[in-house]
Amino acid sequence: MTATLSTQSRLKIYKSSPELYDAMMALSTAAAKDVDPKLGELIKIRASQINRCAFCLDMHTRDARKIGVSEQKLDVVAAWSEAGDLFDETERAALALTEAITVLGPHGVPDDVYEDAAAAFSDRELGQVIALAVTINAWNRINAAVHTAPPRR
């Protein structure tokens, strides 16, 4: 049996379950607290690329532009590890950790990825970066399940 994929919208989950939306927004706000907004958007964009969430990619690339993330970074964030020194040490550590959380291997997040992130961030910041990656993955999966499409502009 072959799975078929439709781009047709499904359940309007945030209308049928507004408490879900409220809880996710509260989690998003808590996760973003004390994280540089530009770094937060890069985390959200990278996870959304991996998860193929067009709605979140549209939203977070627009948000990133509004707060001054460079077009060059947005152009190459999917290949950040090949971009030389375009991304600084903290961005690289956060993006590697985001990828490891988003695509969990059989043993979870590799020690070297975690250790690099732990060296780049304080304990509080590391917790926030982990929470941001987890939260955007939850948003991506909700939107993928119900086929939330980006708005036409």
Automatic annotation (TrEMBL):
UniProt protein name: Carboxymuconolactone decarboxylase-like domain-containing protein
NCBIfam families named among the record's database cross-references: ahpD_dom
Source superkingdom: Bacteria
GO molecular function terms listed in the Swiss-Prot or TrEMBL record: peroxiredoxin activity
InterPro entries found in the cross-reference section: AhpD-like, AhpD_core, CMD-like
Pfam families from the UniProt entry: CMD
Segments forming domain Carboxymuconolactone decarboxylase-like: 18-99
